Amino acid sequence: MGLLDRLFGKETKEEETMTTEKLNIGIILGSTRQGRVSPQVAEWVKGIADQRGDANYEIVDIADFKLPFLGTTDGSEPGIAAWNEKLANLDGFVFIVQEYNHSLSASLKNALDFAREAWYNKAAGIVSYGSTGGARAAEHLRGICAELKIADVRTHPTLSLFTDFENMSVFTPQELHNANVNAMLEEVVAWSGALKTVR
Asked: How many H-runs (helices) and E-runs (strands) does the chain carry?
């Protein structure tokens, strides 16, 4: 299809099918440590997402893949292939990111590095948390996303360990975050759909 046809809304049958099929969006847990709170945050995001009905949302736990540290393996572990296969079947992502020492966790960076083409030309949103809302971890993740051809959306819900968690361990989000999560998901779904046409 030519550029003018795209601009004037004419679609081929193949593109029509692509726009009516629901996208698959993975909500990726960014931590594997004992006692992590990212599952609580992910379940909250998924609860909001499922009410929208605009995509298929699933929580993806990198701990399930038992990835070794990059550089310590010959690449034959089954989890590496399974991780890449899972990412390849997703159209977009929401990263649940916690801040460690002004950056993202080593486990998330390792998981990002264990795939390449499976990330390409997809969109992602970021939900971060930490003492300053996880903002610095999210900024580092954006640079990595650019290298992996992941288009990260602008809207970015930030959660405070002091006001959105009890004793920094039980997630009790403030109501005001719901609108931000919905706005972020709106962008992720729109961009994921657009990028699917160039894959």
From this structure: 7, 8
Q: Are 127 and 159 in contact (CB under 8 A)?
A: yes
H or E stretch covering 108: helix 106-113
Q: Are 92 and 78 in contact (CB under 8 A)?
A: no
CA pseudo-torsion sign 116, 117, 118, 123: positive
Residues 6+ apart with CB under 8 A from 111: 28, 62, 65, 67, 83
C-alpha gyration radius of the chain: 17
pLDDT surpasses 80 at 7: no
Give backbone dihedrals phi and psi of 92, rounded to 5 degrees, phi first.
Answer: -165, 175
Burial code (b: 16+ CB inside 10 Å, e: under 16) for 146-170 equals eebebbbbebbbbbbbeebbeeeee
Confidence category of residue 54, pLDDT binned at 50, 70, 90: very high
Q: How far apart are the first and last CA of the chain?
A: 15
Domains and their CATH numbers in the chain: 24-196 (3.40.50.360)
Are the C-beta atoms of residues 162 and 131 closer than 8 Å to each other?
yes
Q: What is the pLDDT of residues 141-166, one digit of tens each?
A: 999 999 999 999 999 999 999 999 99
Whole-angstrom Cα distance, residue 178 to residue 144? 26
Q: Which two tokens stand for residue 89?
A: 């079947």
pTM value > 0.85: yes
